[in-house]
Design a protein that fits this description.
With 105 residues, this protein is an alpha+beta fold. The chain has one domain: Alpha-D-Glucose-1,6-Bisphosphate, Chain A, domain 4. The chain is built from 2 helices and 5 strands; from the N terminus they run βββαββα. A 5-stranded antiparallel beta sheet has the order 1-2-3-4-5. A hairpin with a 5-residue loop joins β1 and β2. The chain starts with a strand and ends with a helix.
Length: 105
Amino acid sequence: MATCETTDGETLTCLETIESVDEQNKTIVFKLFGEAMDDKYKVFKLTFEAIEKDGGSAAIKWSIEYERVSEDVRPPYGYIEFYDHLTKDVDAYIVKAEKNASNKN
């Protein structure tokens, strides 16, 4: 179960499952569903892709695939902003951990 507060102030609880894992292409596809999602979207999938960079670093690409139940449903801009903030928070945490580890050496 996942709970998130979107940047437009809406708190949503939904279920998530891993639909596929592709180790060769370094991707994971998550499917979100449940009452909060099913009322608005026929399909809602998140794809997480790790892209290797020079020097052993990596970039993360999030993709959202969705199909609204009707044109009255707004596109999921709040989710896009939520995952943007989440990625920045994780990045800051990793950078801080790397600095702390290098200071101990």
